[in-house]
Write a structure and sequence with these properties.
Oligomer: single chain
Strand content: 15-25%
Order of helices and strands: HEEE
Largest sheet: 3 strands, antiparallel
């Protein structure tokens, strides 16, 4: 039997949001390390060209560090293949990679 875990938060309750953000890395990284299917959603406001109100597959999670700090990165994929490509910090062509 498949086990399901859903994580969410009420965007009007910042204390819930803080708890959710604090735990997201551990939960997602742990789920991926045990080969579970993980998805996320973009919500109702556009963020760096992500499709709004849409689900994405989470393909991987990595922690990287450089002289400016430590970053938790998630690799996501639009399963519909819509012509919208993320163009924010850490996007494929972002100078953050250099």
């Amino acid at each position: 039997m498949m086990e399901s875990t859903e994580i969410g938060y009420d965007s009007n309750d910042l204390s819930t949001l803080d708890i959710a953000i604090a735990n997201v890395w551990d939960i997602v990284h742990g789920a991926l390390s045990t080969e579970r299917v993980v998805e996320c959603g973009a919500g109702s406001s556009t963020i760096d060209s992500l499709v709004t109100n849409h689900a994405y597959s989470v393909l991987g999670a990595w922690n990287i560090s450089d002289e400016t700090g430590s970053y938790n990165l998630f690799k996501i994929r639009n399963p519909w293949g819509v012509d919208a490509t993320y163009n924010g910090t850490w996007a494929d062509e972002s100078p953050s990679w250099t």
